[in-house]
Amino acid sequence: MVVTTRRRPGLGTNQELARRHNLGTVLRHVHGAGQISRAELTGRMGLNRSTIAALVNELEALGITERALPAEGIPRQGAGRPSAGVRIAEDGPFVIAVDLGVDRAVVARIGLGGRVLQRSQAPVRSDGEAWQVGAAVAGLIRCVVEGVPDAAQLVGIGISVPGLVRNSDGLIRLAPNLEWHDVSFGGIVLAALGLDVPVSIANDADLGALAEHVRGVAVGVDDLIYVSGNVGVGAGVIAGGVRLEGAGGYAGEVGHLRFNPAGRECHCGNRGCWETEVGAHAIAEAIHCPSDKVAQLDEVLAGFGEPSPAVRATGTALGHGLADIVNVFNPRQVVLGGYFRSLYALVGPEVEAALADRALPAPLESVTLTLPGLGSDSSLLGAAEIALEPLFVDPVAALGTALVGVGTRLAG
Amino acid sequence: MVVTTRRRPGLGTNQELARRHNLGTVLRHVHGAGQISRAELTGRMGLNRSTIAALVNELEALGITERALPAEGIPRQGAGRPSAGVRIAEDGPFVIAVDLGVDRAVVARIGLGGRVLQRSQAPVRSDGEAWQVGAAVAGLIRCVVEGVPDAAQLVGIGISVPGLVRNSDGLIRLAPNLEWHDVSFGGIVLAALGLDVPVSIANDADLGALAEHVRGVAVGVDDLIYVSGNVGVGAGVIAGGVRLEGAGGYAGEVGHLRFNPAGRECHCGNRGCWETEVGAHAIAEAIHCPSDKVAQLDEVLAGFGEPSPAVRATGTALGHGLADIVNVFNPRQVVLGGYFRSLYALVGPEVEAALADRALPAPLESVTLTLPGLGSDSSLLGAAEIALEPLFVDPVAALGTALVGVGTRLAG
DNA sequence: CGCCGTTCCGTGACGCGGACAACAAATTCT
DNA sequence: AGAATTTGTTGTCCGCGTCACGGAACGGCG
Fold first, then answer.
1. How buried is B147 (Cβ within 10 angstroms: 0-12 exposed, 13-18 middle, 19+ buried)?
2. What is the pLDDT of residues B109-121, one digit of tens each?
């Protein structure tokens, strides 16, 4: 796993800061690999054995990691004393991840290492008020923390939302499919739970990109784009190993790229946005899918056999739009999420051909088009990642704000 | 000045690394401010006074900075002993910046702090072979290092090129207006000089963005886009305080965004790229400018009085394209460079109106449209910045690869 | 004009984190 | 089974940043 951390600009490096960074980086490696040997850690981090040992001991003292048998996992290569492993502790810290979809909400309890410990979901009415959805999500959360050992610490809650989220405070500026404007969903959920823990909220495509980068198909790829077809079309961008957020957190809104000025009207007020050609409603129309099944477009497309000319044309439109994205961002990998997964399975060649036709040679030659490695869980796991993030920046501080005994607290 | 530095992924922070980072950061502050007091440094970097003192002493011992009188500069506010200043040393390290335009090359000797010490330029034939241009640039460089004190050290050469530059090795993949393909211009210049110093090459729009971010109109703005109209149209992106490069270094190629599928053919092979509407040739045609003056379009436009309807339409097309850019990148500032400067001066209201019409409300509300603060020198100063960059990462190492006595060496 | 408060510089003592060396332990290769 | 190799552990040292103290320069005030 490679997530480049970014420094605040002009600040110097205090040696205490350096230590916190090192502690967090060790944890990041354990998180990424699930289990890792101390020898591997010394190699990857470029620090001395004894330094690594001290850091690992501190993590163990904090109850985050535990010793593992050396032989476990890889069979071993070469001679020498086998290195003792470091792995995530049972009953270690965990987060709650929420994936708010257009027609259902998924909630999971996820531990370090990305392990889904418990999981629950429920349908959500797309015309529901925010507080109703919040109450439903709170119910799922209560369900998911049932029976959690009291020692385990809740680090935070991460929420994936199909809409524009302001990064400064997590306000949902606009979620078209939920018909929400300026909703402080984090506060609503916390109020419904009666808790106070850190809440991180972000756009679903951004989180999909993050998850695919950390544990999906794009591990080791520092420049990737996750293009997600939900009802709307959005993209999440990882550039140089870091999430591209933009000034307000709205970067990656590719759905309203100018595609065909003579096209049909878009709900944004313009004409011929890309979304009017490859959005769910446009595709549903092209395949004569009833409008109440638009939210399940992925399943509908997955049931298709031979693609009709209309579907082929949609694939071409997808590829042409991707060409713009490839030209502008020059990613190494483009991951197609949401219903684009089954669309690509149907008309992959058309998409590739259209992309190759319109993209510039230089950015085209290094890009690959792939499906997500995490299936439909990308956004959920991405929500877990942003909730875990404070732990990698400063484990001690993050555990300081964490909550213990959440199971009994929410039950009683 | 704020340039966020990025860490390599999983590496731990050696305490030697921390010290180098701190030393470089001090220098970065001095570079940004020109002159700065030690007290200011302690405040900005959050380190102890004595730590700052040690770092400043080391920079002085290296001959990079020197003590300045306290009273100089700001009149002082509040009582107390005035803080001794730190400023860039005379005869300190310098770089050579090259701005390769479509019809002329500008070469400057630039010191730390962004001071242009010497400067020279010459016309360049747009159909020239790369080695001819390289020889001309080498001549300008010889001219610019004339009379340099032997003690001053040449840190590197930075080159700005109107084209696609591969970031891994600085190869110019494509420079349409120079008709270059896969040219290793850095090597050509070094060979013509008979020197061996670090050479950094990058796209002119990228460097314009960097320069405006460091010392231009976008100081303190971490998310900005410099949209440059030269003969082609390109953009440089700073996101989160860091240059957005993309996998190969080609990010920001906005000239070939799909604009009007029914439009005219573009030299890239597609139809209706944005460049066919707001590129130099399109504008020249709209204002009936003779084709041999296309390279001087900026001056031609600056001489205009009342804009004609055709020019107004061009402004609208510019604004519509900028809307796509604002939606996708969500910048806080968009800087219009090249001939877009005089175009904006003519039809600013049309550009703003078209942008407001097509951009999404959320990203629109935080963006401002401005002209460059460095005029036509943005790219040149950006070239100096990338050449200076190693000095801020590790001053000691950068001075190790620097050259002394360049003046006599190139003269003899 | 002289005193005082303020702010800053310089120096030395201290604490801490990381590197290094030496030794013990565990496993593979021959 | 012994040699070789690699790792974990411990103790020591060194470098770096912080803290505390004294001295210095300046403005304000009487």
1. exposed
2. 999 989 999 999 9
CB contact under 8 A, A6 and B11: no
Q: Of A69, A88, A107, which one is at a domain's C-terminal end?
A: A88
Residue B246 belongs to a domain with what CATH number?
Answer: 3.30.420.40
- Which helix (H) or strand (E) segment holds residue B340: the answer is helix B340-358
Facing residues of A333 across strands? A224, A368
Residues near B222 by Cβ (< 8 Å), separated by ≥ 6? A247, B2, B4, B238, B239, B240, B241, B332
A324 touching chain B per CB within 8 A: yes
For A351-370, write each residue's pLDDT tens digit: 999 999 999 999 999 999 99
> β-strand B333-338 against B368-370: which pairing, if any?
parallel
The stretch A387-407 carries a mean pLDDT of 88
Judged by a CB distance cut-off of 8 A, whether residue B323 touches chain A is: yes
Q: How confident is the model at residue A268 (pLDDT cuts 50, 70, 90)?
A: confident
Provide, in whole angstroms, the distance separating residue B16's CA from nucleotide D17's C1': 13
pLDDT at B250: 95
Residue A85 CA and nucleotide C28 C1' are separated, in Å, by 19
Domain ranges, residue B289: 221-372
Is A6 a domain residue?
no
Q: Report angle CA B248, B251, B254 to the nearest 5 degrees.
A: 145
**pLDDT digit string, tens, across residues A73-98:** 455 566 677 777 888 888 889 999 99
Cβ atoms of residues A229 and A343 within 8 Å: yes
DSSP annotation of B99: E
Quote the pLDDT of residue A7. 39
Listed residues B28, B53, B88: the one ending a domain: B88
Nearest residue on chain B to A249, alpha-carbon basis: B330
Tokens of A177: 């499919």
For residue B63, give the CATH number of its domain: 1.10.10.10
Q: Do A359 and A230 belong to one domain?
A: yes
In a domain, residue A2? The reply is no
Q: Are residues B71 and B138 part of one domain?
A: no
In this structure, the answer to whether residues B41 and B63 fall within a common structural domain is yes
Q: Is residue B172 domain-resident?
A: yes
Give B80→chain A minimum CA distance, Å.
25
Same domain, A348 and A267: yes
Q: Is the CB of A75 under 7 A from strand C?
A: no
Same domain, A44 and A170: no
Do B253 and B321 share a structural domain? yes
Residues 68-87 of B with CB under 7 A from strand C: 78-84
Q: Judge whether A364 lies within some domain.
A: yes
- B331 and A247 within 8 Å at the Cβ level: the answer is yes
Q: Does A11 touch chain B (CB under 8 A)?
A: yes
Write out pLDDT tens, residues B31-84: 988 888 888 888 888 788 888 888 888 888 888 888 877 655 454 556 667 777
Q: Where are the alpha helices (DSSP H) in B84-239?
A: 130-144, 185-193, 204-215
pLDDT in tens, A146-169: 989 888 999 999 999 999 999 999
Residues A235 and A368 in one domain: yes
Overall domain count for chain A: 3
Residue B51: half-sphere exposure toward Cβ, Cα within 13 Å: 18
Pair (A354, A284) in one structural domain: yes
**Which chain A residues are within 8 Å of B21, Cβ to Cβ?**
12-13
pLDDT number for residue B73 = 47
Average pLDDT over residues B286-312: 83
